[in-house]
Amino acid sequence: MMLSFFDQFMSPTYMGVPLIALAITLPWILYPAPTSRWVNNRLLTLQGWFINRLNQQIFLPINQGGHKWATLLTSLMIFLITLNILGLLPYTFTPTTQLSLNMAFAVPLWLATVIIGMRNQPTAALGHLLPEGTPTPLIPVLIIIETISLFIRPLALGVRLTANLTAGHLLIQLIATAAFVLLPMMPTVAILTATVLFLLTLLEVAVAMIQAYVFVLLLSLYLQENV
Fold this sequence. Notes:
The chain is mostly helical. It has one domain. The chain has helices at residues 2-6, 20-25, 42-59, 70-86, 99-120, 122-127, 139-182, 187-226; strands spanning 13-14, 17-18. It has a two-stranded antiparallel sheet with strand order 1-2. Helix 4 runs antiparallel to helix 8, helix 5 runs antiparallel to helix 7 (139-182) and helix 5 (99-120) packs parallel to helix 8 (187-226). It is globular and about 70 Å long. The chain starts with a helix and ends with a helix. Belongs to the ATPase A chain family. InterPro entries: ATP_synth_F0_asu (IPR000568), ATP_synth_F0_asu_AS (IPR023011), ATP_synth_F0_asu_bact/mt (IPR045083), F0_ATP_A_sf (IPR035908). It comes from Coilia dussumieri. The chain crosses the membrane at residues 12-31, 69-89, 101-118, 138-159, 171-199, 205-223.
């Protein structure tokens, strides 16, 4: 039974070929393409309003040099939100439950922020490893601790996204199984369980959006330290 619960996180294959690449590529066709018309339809207007609000929230505290990342981080957030929400549909696969995929997003972007900081302002970038006013005996220990915390950042990004989505999917499957088993024996309890399942699904939609936002927000904070 435990294996069946975790089977949903296995990458589907067709004739031995993993379909995770297809699951990553297909969401792009759902986005409406901008037009050259002066007046857009409601969907494009809503999309533009959402992207503008997102850019204001994330890039307001960042100086002008970090605004070059706006297109990349905005696209990443919309992509993650789409993957997370589509993964809540029945008979679908959620690529962002794979730690390898999330680390593939987190490590290069985190490394790019570190390289930018080392290239543009090496003194300030290295200064983050030693807080101001540190007692002399604690300097070696704090440098080691801050260095470890620096390299843990991409791992924390990937694990946070993977763990939250995996836990939500498992909880939904457990409650759905309980409702299905209780239906012939205790219909009233099964209906209450199904109500809890519906509310949990709404919560998971919110979690899917929030986790994508937190992922990009933390990347923007790392960028803010280095530009």
